[in-house]
Amino acid sequence: MVITGDIVVDDYTLTFANGKSLAIEPYEAGRVGDWSRSGKSVAGDVFTADSSANLKLLNGNKLCATP
Q1: C-beta of residue 45 within 8 angstroms of C-beta of residue 31
Q2: What is the maximum alpha-carbon separation in the chain?
Q3: 20, 55 in Cβ contact below 8 A?
Q4: I need a labelling partner for 18 at 20 to 30 A (CA). Which of 2, 8, 28, 53 fits?
Q5: Three-class SS of residue 53?
Q6: Which DSSP letter does residue 36 get?
């Protein structure tokens, strides 16, 4: 929450608290993994995003680290 603020997710977009959006594309539906690191595997959908967008978020943070 400190980095992104609230996030709204729809089928093809992540919209962050500051109004910036990132396009996403479905990649793999129903992939099983331990997404919350709780030790329990559950199915989740995986999406791709253009990391070159490197949006500026809350408090000057960026979505992707500088290479």
Answers
A1: yes
A2: 34
A3: yes
A4: 28
A5: helix
A6: T
Token pair 């129903």 is found at: 30
Distances in Å between the alpha carbon of 38 and those of 14, 28, 29?
25, 22, 21
**Contact residues for 39 (Cβ-Cβ < 8 A; gap 6+):** none
> What pTM did the predictor assign?
0.66
Residues making up the chain, counted from first to last: 67
- The overall average pLDDT reported for the chain is 86
Please count the helices (runs of H) and the strands (runs of E) in the chain. Answer: 0, 4
Are 51 and 22 in contact by the 8 Å Cβ rule? The answer is: no
How far from the centroid of its chain's Cα atoms is residue 36's Cα?
A: 14
Backbone angles phi, psi at 43, to 5 degrees: -80, 140
Q: Do the Cβ atoms of 4 and 17 come closer than 8 Å?
A: yes
User: CB–CB of 57/18 below 8 Å?
Assistant: yes
